Amino acid sequence: SCGSLGNCSAVGSYRDNNTNNQAFVANEVGQKWLPAKEVTLPPNSAGTGQVALARSVACASAGNCSAVGSYLDSNTPTARNVGFVISEVGGSWKIASEISPTSSANFNPYLTMSQIACSSVGNCTSVGSFIDVNDVNQGLLVVQVKGVWTQGLTLTLPANASAYAGASLSEVACVKRAGCAVLGTFNTNTGAIEGLSATESKGQWSRAQELTMPPDAAANPHVFLYGYEGIACASVGNCSLGGQYQNRAGKYEGFFENENSGTWKSAVALALPSGALEAGKNGGVVAISCPRVGNCRAGAAYLDRTDVYQALVVTETNGTWHRGTIVVLPGGATSVGVDGGVYAVVCVTTNTCTATGSYLGTSTQYEGFILNS
C-alpha cells in the first residue's frame, strides 16, 4: 500500500534461523526500499514454534499505515492462534497489539485476518474470522478509530442465515474520509453457501445482506472469494465486487456485482473469451479497482479450450462489464497454471492501471508479471 508516490509499505512473513515463521514490514521512502524489519509481536507471543504472518497493510498517508496479521501465543500446553494489529505513525512502526475478539470467541479462536483498509489516518477497518464458543466460524470486524483499535465485533447476518452460519469476512474497501464496505460468505438455513456484503457509515454498520447470484446459479452456488481485493468502491454507496460461484451445470464461473447509490444489483456472470470451457475451480474474479463510479478494471482467470488456465483483465464502462481480454504472458508462456493469474489491480484513472500476477514460466516454476495500461 502506498501513502503517496514513492512512499509505500509491504508486509509478509519469512523463516528465521531458528525455523520460526516471523512477520515483517518493509518501507519505501522517497522511492527507495529500506531493509525489512521483523514485527515486534505482542508480549504473549510464543518464543519457539512461531508461525506469524503479516497479512495486509493499508497506508492513509506517507508514513502512516496500519497492518494486521496472526501469530501463536505462549499459552501452554497448546499455543492459541490469535491475531495482531500494528500501526506506523510518522514513519515508525510500533509494537504489535493482540486483537481483542468478541466475547463469544472460543478459548482458542483460531483467528485469521484477511484484509485492512483505511478511510483516513488512524481510521481503518480490518476483516477476518474466528471460532466462537460453539465451534462455529464467525466473521470478524476490527475497527481503528482515531488511532485506537476497538474490540472485535460481528455483523448481524441476513435473516436466512443458518444458526451455524459459518460466516467469514474476506475483503474490505474504504472511501477516503467516508465509509467502508465488506464482503464475505455465510451458510443459509438451507445449507447453501452465499455471498454477503455490509456497509459502514458514520461508524454504524448495516445488517449484512445476501448477494444475488447470476440467473444460472445453482441452488447452492458455493460462493467463493479469493481475499485479494475483490471489492472496490469509487464513492460511498458505489462499489463493485467479484468472486466465483457454481452454476446449475456444475461449472465454476466468475461473477460481478455492482452497488449503485447504496443498492446492490443482481450479479452478472464473468463473460469469457470464445471457446472457453468455464472459469474453473481455480478461476473467477480475483481483484478489482474502481477509479470512477461505474468504471472499473478487474483481474480474473479461466480455463481455455485446451483445459489450461489463462489470465484475464476485464473492463467495466459506465456500469457495464465487458468480455474479458486474455493476458499475453511473457516469453511465450502458455498458461498461468492452477495457482497463477492476476492477483492485484490498481487504477489511477480509468485508462491508467497496473496489474500484477504469476504464471508458469516452466512446467514446474512460477514467475511473476506486471501489466500496464
Word description of this protein:
With 373 residues, the protein is mainly beta. 0% of the residues lie in helices and 53% in strands. It has no helices and 32 strands. The protein has strands at 2-4, 7-15, 21-29, 32-33, 37-38, 53-61, 64-72, 81-89, 92-93, 97-98, 112-120, 123-131, 137-145, 148-149, 168-174, 180-187, 193-201, 204-205, 209-210, 231-235, 238-246, 252-260, 263-264, 268-269, 284-292, 295-303, 309-317, 320-321, 325-326, 341-349, 352-360, 366-372. The strands form seven sheets. Strands 1, 2, 3, 4 and 5 form a five-stranded antiparallel sheet that branches. The relative contact order is 0.07. The mean pLDDT is 94.
Low-confidence stretches: none
Query: Overall 3D geometry?
Result: globular
What Rg is obtained from the alpha carbons, in whole angstroms? 20 Å
Mean pLDDT: 94
Structural class: mainly beta
Total count of helical runs of at least 4 residues: 0
Distance between the termini: 20 Å
Count all strands and give the number: 32
Helix content: under 10%
